[in-house]
Structures are given as structure tokens and as C-alpha cells.
Amino acid sequence: PSEDYCYSLPPLTNTGNGGSNYEECHGDCDGDDDCIGSLVCFQSDAGGGKVPGCSGTTIDATDYCFMPTVHTGNLALTFIGDELATGSYSECEGDCDNDADCLGDDLFCFQRSSVAGTSNSQVPNCDGTGIPSEDYCYSLPPLTNTGNGGSNYEECHGDCDGDDDCIGSLVCFQSDAGGGKVPGCSGTTIDATDYCFMPTVHTGNLALTFIGDELATGSYSECEGDCDNDADCLGDDLFCFQRSSPAGTSNSQVPNCDGT
Prior knowledge:
By secondary structure, the chain is mainly beta.
């Protein structure tokens, strides 16, 4: 009874979108209600990713049902009611309206409809989709320094040198000195270690996006480049931030934009 045994993970199986009662590692689900039993829906941003507890990699942005907690250590999103008393919501519970609704100082209310931008955005450190547009309490992952020179750093991991060092859509937060805070992470920086974080969600800023060089006048929106002068930016309220000359370094932080 106390002996341990090897086992295989079920393969990812796409039986098409629009169904219901998807089994473990089956999809394409749209939300937790599409999954059978206590399974929840894993939202894939792009192809080539892994789904907890399943073998194989995702194709395109197909979403699959999986068993929460067992393979992630995260709690599943759980709706316990709306407009409950202050401090009523534990981790991964909702629908909270602000941080004060969450239990304790280490939990925060993740506003999916406003801050995250979409009603089905992934709540950090929680499994599943929950109820779209409902907001849930979550904890911040701790800052973790696994050393410089690596790649595919996860959220709140470092020491990254640029956005390309971060996995998926994460970007690199440049720390000037120790004792600082990284958006969406708990703890403080040590020395000038740089960490990957999720842009926009915790800052409201857009991520820096390269759309091409020497495009027509007025082609670049906020946080887009590579502009050469103010006229390249769209509208009178945007300006071209020259990182190589006035700012002094090629990796200087662009105001009100996330990443390198």
C-alpha cells in the first residue's frame, strides 16, 4: 500500500470546440463548465505549450480540461457569492470587488474585466476559468533568482536580461538597485537582479512591441517602435523616446511602457 508506481500521462486530444463534458486532457473547451466533474479548462495562449497532467503540446490556442491542484499546486477558481462582507474571500475565491474583500494582507483582488482587459483572463496562481467577468482573490508569486544567462524564465523569476529571456508573453522588469518591487510579485529585489513579469495586468501599461523600422509617418501607436522622430508616432500626444542618445543606454526604460 505504501509503495510508489510509475504511470503515464494521458495525451492531449482535440475533439472539437462547442462540446461539453470533456474528459481529462480533452478539448477544445471554452470554460470550466465544459469540463466533466471537477476538471477545469486550461487556457492556451498559443501552440507548443504544456497542459498540467497531460502529455504532448498544444496546437494553436486550443484549450483542454485538466485536474486542478494535483499537477499545479494551485487552487481552483471558486465562486462563493457577490458583495459579501470585507475579508470574506480566500485565495482563488470570488466575486471580490477590491483588495479589502480578500482575507489577509497577502491576497489581492484580480480585476479581470478592467485591469486584465478580458472577462476570461487567467487569475495568477489559480486554476481554471471560473465564471467570466467575475473577479477573484489571488496571491502574488515570490521573486526567485535562478541565475543569469538562462531562458524561458517564468513569472517573477530571473535574472533576465531582456524580454526574449522570459517565457510566453512575460517581459523583463529592469531593476536599478536592490530593495525594489516588481509588479505582480511578492518580496523585494536584491542588487540589480531583473525579473520577468506579466505586463499590463499589474501596471496598466502596454508592452513594448516592435512592428517594423522606417514605416510611414504616424504609423506607431503607444509603446510601438522603431520610431525615428515624433512625427512617426500616431497623434499629437505621442512622442518618440530616443533610447540610444538622450536616455544614455540602449536598454533604458520607455516611460509608461512595460518590458525592454
